[in-house]
Amino acid sequence: MSHIHRIQWFDQQIRNACYPNSNILAEQFEISRRQAQRDIEYMAESLRAPLRYVASQRGYMYEDNSFVLPHLYITDEEQRVLKYLAYRYSHYDYENGQTIRRVGGLLERFTDQPQQPGEFMLPVFEVDARRLQVIGLLEQAIQTRRVVHILCRKQPDHPRELYLCPLKLSHRLEEDYVVAAVEGNSRTELFNLTEIQQLKLTDRYFAADEEFSVAPPGQNKQLKPFTARIRLSGTPADSSWGGYTIRSTDGDVYEIEFYDTDAFLGQLFSSEWTGILSPKWLKEKVRIRCQKLMNLLNEQESRSDH
């Protein structure tokens, strides 16, 4: 449940003369008492709610019943942008760093109030839509402890396909990183988000301990890759195709190695090529996926005609 819903619920409890407090709020939404108290402080300090604690009732009331909450609704896209800016501001470590990091904390808790002019200017960060999506997926994976599949290029000629157990996001020297362990390996590494070309959540989970022993037997990074023979419409600029290792075999025909079939299907649907020569099962998967899409489009057109 979001911060917005908790505030709206707390406001309604006050209006119903229920005298809510941090304990009641914490129990209602299964959050910590400390987080509940921060919500109440946010109402008082940022939303200017005229809260007064009534000791005899052990809860809060409004000193002015004419108070109404400001408009709290924002779209999902706006929430993603705010979350990204909160992340960047929270890791800012330059001029006015302490004040700006507090701004990051406020954004993280959510506010749609306009920034008040002060004695300093907030730094401007470019909002990269692709980076925003990667960070969003990683935050989801970290929270739910999901294994992610990535295509990573630390070196131009050596793209890697990995399964990672992401632990936390990090920002240093103007670069964003994820601290993660390769599935089946207890050693953690820093992965630069700019080097992650593709990222997908898997249906596997890892344990919340230091072992990270989550790779099922025969399904870790030692798997033998599949090899597809694809006829491309042009000559690749280097030895990879969208992050996948390729080898030229005969003119415009290339052998391409991959581990995750669904991720590779995504590459096929987003890139230009003129033929899939092998394997047959891959051609069949592409055909079935295309047929399903065509059926959906035909059904949609049929419904619109009626």
Automatic annotation (TrEMBL):
InterPro entries in alphabetical order: CBASS_pafABC_assoc_protein (IPR051534)
PANTHER family: PROTEIN PAFB, PTHR34580
Protein name: Uncharacterized protein
Lineage of origin: Bacteria, Bacillati, Bacillota, Bacilli, Bacillales
